[in-house]
Amino acid sequence: MNGASLWSERRSSYWQEARGYLKLILNSGFVASVYFLFIFLTVYYQQFIADMPANFPVAELLTALFAWRLTQGKVRTFVKQADVVFLLPYEAHLGEYFQKSIRYSLIWQCGFIVLIMLSAGPMFTARIGEGATFWLALVLLLIVKAWNLYCVWEEQRLTGSGDRISHILLRLLVNAVFAYLLFSNSPFWLLLLMLIGMGLLYVFYWRMFSKRHSLKWERLIEVENSMVMFFYRIANVFADVPALRHKVRERRYLQWLIPVLGGNKRTVYHHLFARSFIRANDYLGVYFRLMLVGGVLLYFLPAGWMQVAIAVLFTHMTMMQLSTLSYHYRTSMWVDLYPIEPLGQKQALTFIALRLLFVLALVFSVIVVFTAPVLYAVVTLVFTGLLAFSGSTSLIHRKKGKYSRVR
């Protein structure tokens, strides 16, 4: 069996499918929203760099950012569920397959580090150094990222999640120490000495996992599925993704929210949509993350019309996420057994989305009240409220693009 050709075939198959969804994403208004947000943040970022206080903890901030990003990362293997049966006997012949997976993942992960470093560039050059100092720091970060990714590959051989978590914490500590030494202008010989120590730690500790533990195919499949589902959840905002699997969390402590969201009508779809929002596919998590990010931006922005624009933008992004609820039961035959008119589903989704968006609009308006004149808070409430009403009654019911065939 040729491992290299098998890997190339699977990579091509994945990207052939992904391109169909990416076309829908790029043709949507979401990209324009992200572009607007990027331009806006760039302008205020430059203003912040120009007015940055002398005691601002640049080294500490960059240490926290890069320690997290260096530690994060997974190896993309493109393995499938059936490989446990069909490829497991050929594991000894798949060395080139997994090496190509590691190199492929390393390119992507290093790309993220480059983007973050370029984004932090103005802050870095303003306080730490510029020119050769900046590029040397970037090269050192890429070397540390490669070290982390090879360690991640070996950690996948461990059986227990507790063992993997303990090694992740160990790498996080090592990355934090290295990043702090880098961003605090420590001597180069000290950084080089630490790189040598990390290399020895990999050779004489992490690499020994391959001699004591076999490759855990179930773990590889779990990691691969999580990465594929992450992309599917993003694409599901813009298109119906038949391959998306619903992930359910029990969340008993939030059961009291079901009647609050569903209202007193207690119809089938009111109950189902409210329950799905709380328990399935991280709808609740995305809702609160958008609320948190939008709220933080509104709090730190200078008072003005830009606050209103950001509030409307994040309300629109939340509305797009809530629109995916309408497809949650599309493939469930049990729901079709209920003797309910299809109009009831639309009314229930409108009811729940309207409540959630009005809560978001109210939260954003309250934040603006404490950071800007009352006029801006009133305008924020009016515009976000109008968008919440029009979005929940019409926009979220528009049919998304279709790319239903999953190759």
Question: What would your notes on this structure say?
Answer:
- With 407 residues, the protein is mainly alpha-helical.
- It has helices spanning 3-26, 29-50, 58-71, 83-86, 95-119, 121-127, 132-155, 161-183, 188-204, 209-212, 217-235, 257-262, 268-279, 283-300, 305-323, 333-336, 342-371, 374-393; strands at residues 239-240, 401-402.
- 72% of the residues lie in helices and 1% in strands.
- A two-stranded parallel sheet has the order 1-2.
- Helix 3 (58-71) packs antiparallel against helix 8 (161-183), helix 14 packs parallel to helix 17 (342-371) and helix 15 (305-323) packs parallel to helix 18 (374-393).
- It is globular and about 60 Å long.
- The two termini are 23 Å apart.
- The relative contact order is 0.09.
Helix fraction by DSSP (H/I, runs of at least 4): over 70%
Uncertain regions spanning at least 5 consecutive residues: 401-407
Counted by DSSP, the helix tally is 18
Structural class: mainly alpha
Q: Looking at the structure, what is the overall shape?
A: globular
Sheet of most strands? 2 strands, parallel
Share of β-strand residues: under 5%
Beta strands, count: 2
Gyration radius from CA atoms, angstroms:
24 Å
Number of structural units classed as domains? 2
